[in-house]
Write a structure and sequence with these properties.
Layout (H helix, E strand, L loop, with lengths): L2 E5 L2 E4 L4 E8 L7 E7 L6 E6 L6 E3 L7 E6 L4 E6 L8 E8 L16 E2 L3 E6 L1
Parallel strand pairs: 2-11
Antiparallel strand pairs: 1-3, 3-8, 4-5, 4-9, 5-6, 7-8, 9-10, 9-11
Length: 127
């Protein structure tokens, strides 16, 4: 059974930084392409960033490009989301997601591309 556990959320001021982590309890982490999504109150869950199994390909939402960086450490079964220059509109619950679908056959930004989801971690950016 695949379990994804996010951590690292919290309260930060505008312009600040946070690093989210997602630890995966899987036998072979390199079988999984990973993504981050977020959901603000009253809004639909939206794509943030995705990374392929090796870390060689990354994909970002336009709203976070240049501010957020996704990375992974396959030796630690962990994917990260470094968030810099945070804005109040970044406030949301952030979810980690994983999939065994081929990177070249999936839409990295698509919710339905992912088989597994974490429980989420709250990020609040104060103005």
């Amino acid at each position: 059974q695949v379990q994804l556990v996010e951590s690292g959320g919290g309260l930060v001021q505008t312009g600040g930084s946070l690093r989210l982590s997602c630890a995966a309890s899987v036998r072979t982490f390199t079988n999984y392409n990973m993504g981050w999504f977020r959901q603000a109150p009253g809004k639909e869950r939206e794509f943030v960033a995705a990374i392929n199994w090796s870390g060689s390909s990354k994909y970002y939402a336009d709203s976070v490009k240049g501010r957020f960086t996704i990375s992974r450490d396959n030796a630690k079964n962990t994917v990260y989301l470094q968030m810099n220059s945070l804005k109040p509109e970044d406030t949301a619950v952030y979810y980690c997601a994983g999939t065994t679908r081929s990177w070249y056959l999936m839409r990295p930004e698509g919710l339905h591309s992912y088989n597994y989801w974490g429980q989420g971690t709250q990020v609040t950016v104060s103005s």
